[in-house]
Design goal:
259 residues, mainly beta, Fumarylacetoacetate hydrolase, domain 2, 7-stranded mixed sheet, 5-stranded mixed sheet, hydrolase, Fumarylacetoacetase-like_C
Amino acid sequence: MAGGDPQYGVVELAEDGGSHPETVSALTGDPLAGPVQLTGERRELDSVRLLAPVIPRSKVVGVGRNFAAHAAELGNEVPATPLIFFKPNTSVIGPGDPIGYPPTTNELSYEGELAVVIGRICKEVPAERVAEVIFGYTVANDVTARDLQKSDGQWARAKGYDGFCPLGPWISTHHTLAEAGDLTITTTVDGEVRQHGSTALMVRSITELVVYISSFTTLLPGDVILTGTPAGVGPMLPGQEVSVTVDGIGTLTNLVTRL
């Protein structure tokens, strides 16, 4: 974000070959909508405000119970077919944005996840072409009002409030499918580790999920697939800071605030 106007940019690693991003180069245009060009403007990363790296044009597609240990900790079986739900694009917020704690719930939970960002319109994608439709990967927190999830029976309200889908801090576009399928996910609350798992433990792989989801709904550029959360989900309270880290991508941090 520069000069008050949202703008896309390329996050760059330190010139000395370090692993930590330090600068961002501004782009013209939208990488998910068409050609882009570097403007020549470069800023220090800590001098800009990072927004959600993508606002889905149509939908966020969630996958429930895609880690066996997570299903078990909530007393559920792993479903015979992928358990799919939707979150509205109005639930998306960025790094540093507050997660609002609605007065309608008494049990708000974090769920750290790897998110897949779709890069092209697609339907009925065969397994061998899944890599072609993925733009990149980011970090997500699938915020869930656990008590509403239980009482409602369906998950639209429990997972669909404004602010219930933090995404960021950026999109990694260089990971292969194989690499994305073996990344460590760690969630902390006020610095204390609550989740520590790996995408290698997903019941269904990224490829399987894209094939299944695209079999019944058209995916559009900018759509996001949340691939499921490892074991260790639990409550977060107003005033607490929740961070989700996917190794090799980045850390997404948000503060919980009472609405």
